[in-house]
Amino acid sequence: MTKPHVLLLGEIVHAKAEWEALSEVATLSVCDSSTKEEFIRDLAGKYSDVMAVYHCHMKDAKPGAIINKELIDALPPSLKFICHNGAGYDMVDVNACAKKGIIVSNTPGTVSDATADVGMFLILGALREFYPAMTSLRKGKWNMGAPISRDPEGKVLGILGMGGIGSAIKRRAEGFDMITQYHNPEPLSDELAAGAKYVSFDELLATSDVISLNLPLNAQTRHIINKDAFAKMKDGVVIVNTARGAIIDEQALVDALESRKVRCAGLDVFEAEPQIHPGLVANEKVILLPHVGTRTYETQKKMEIQVINNVRSAVTEAKLLNVVPEHISLVH
Amino acid sequence: MTVTKPHILLLGEIRHAKAEWEALSDVATLSVCDSANREQFIKDLKGKYSDVVAVYRTFNSVAITGRFDAELLKEFSPSFKYICHNGAGYDQIDVVPCTEQGVHISNCPSTVDDATADVNMFLILGALRNFNEAMVNLRKGNWNVGVPLSNDPDGKVLGILGMGGIGRALKKRAEAFGMTVQYYNRNELSSELAAGAKYVPFDELLATSDVLSLNLPLNPKTRHIINKEAFDKMKDGIVIVNTARGAVMDEAALVDALASGKVKNVGLDVFEAEPKIHPGLVSNEKVILLPHMGTLTYETQKKMEIQVLDNIRAALTTGKLNTIVPEQAGLQ
Question: How far apart are CA A41 and CA A35, in angstroms?
Fold first, then answer.
């Protein structure tokens, strides 16, 4: 009996041995289609019996980078599983996948620590306004540009979307004596909340000293932080985003910084990255990172292995280990 | 016959606890030093400041008076008894001549711990994760292109050289990021204070730590304690962070160790000859540098000012300082 066919869309950098080991249970192909048209032809040709796909972030222009409805319609009937490398999977149209009977997995858990480390760095950098201090030093002006700022101790951290990453940020923030509250679509169990107070969305906005965005990007959450949301926040609030840029209306953020409604911001993600609103780049106070959330050797390897484990489970047991929330009802 | 109140002198500025300073006038006569420089100050010590009993001095006031060395101390009259210093580090004061002259010194332990540990943890993250290079790359318009992968703090060994109040506050934060803590002090701490941190000899701290944090006071014994010989004993690729005093580390030897790759990255808040910084550091885009921001927050600055004022009040009303420096502990 022929082994199931697995297709790699993208690159495996750290877990090459683990990928090669999959050849004991599957035939492995690495996608070499160079254009979208060629890829669609190959899906009807050499990839027409592919059962599972390993998908990771690629430059937007590469075929298969964005798994949209057009591409999903062209996928062969044999393709049942898309195993995505990343916690955020907004570049995969999960509704179109569901309609075609394709189940998607992502990489929760493995991303939590590294992303939370970035989140906490940005919370500190924004509260303490370290960025102007660093640039002042590099310009030879020592601390002339360094403002007196605020301690995290005793401040209220509001987490919007307390999942794995949000919980990891809570644990770190408690090391700095911050008090955590959160808003999710539903309250968590006491065990998962681990002492964090559940509040409504409006109360989170109105009573948090620092707001950390840790929710997924989808049609409901796009621009959830907009002009109206800023108007409900405390004067001098600090905003940190390690989720997806489009959760914040970037123009509204620039306006809120200008009016000093928002005292400072720490951002690892941007609406149209790698493009960044010029109002942010020109702002001397905000602390900005170029989407480095999980960019460490250790975490990148863990994530690749997690995807490979999902592929192995798809091939050997016809199920995924980390089904995305939108597809959980499809597999039970 | 009326009893005159003791004369106390402010060297430097009080920014936040002005009311508390004024309130001291119930037990003292208050003067604010207006001497233009050290020469004038010495003249004034023979004139209008000749009956000063206690001095409130700030870190920045050294620009006027110069160091509190034997030469300056002998210009004070015999009535002079107390130097109440605003800061945890008091290396601007020579303790031995003070003791010989019967002058007691207080500093600001504990009030500085959280804010300094916050800077310390920010720098550990920034150095391990290569965040400075990422931020610079972004601001140049290159997003994260060319920015290499970095390392997670999770599971790494943090070696604390000098685990006093700041070091223990750092331990609490580092553990929230999954780090394991070991330390070297002159004397091992009680198990309560060590709270699970492993006590190791100095050489073992150097040889087995993935991240080395300098949290010890500067004095003749600790000056350049981190020198070329010390670097040779460290792990290849070690990360070093200093929020103590620049001169505990030989800055030129550090630049060499960075160039050779022995030290993978550093995070520094203090420098040997600040505000001057070794050009080999300023031009290095990987290292993360702050201009001595340790306690620069409204909340902590006010707590420190009040701690100094409380020391003055205690000295004048009870004859004992609240937080006399360790070297003089036996004198009260």
Answer: 10
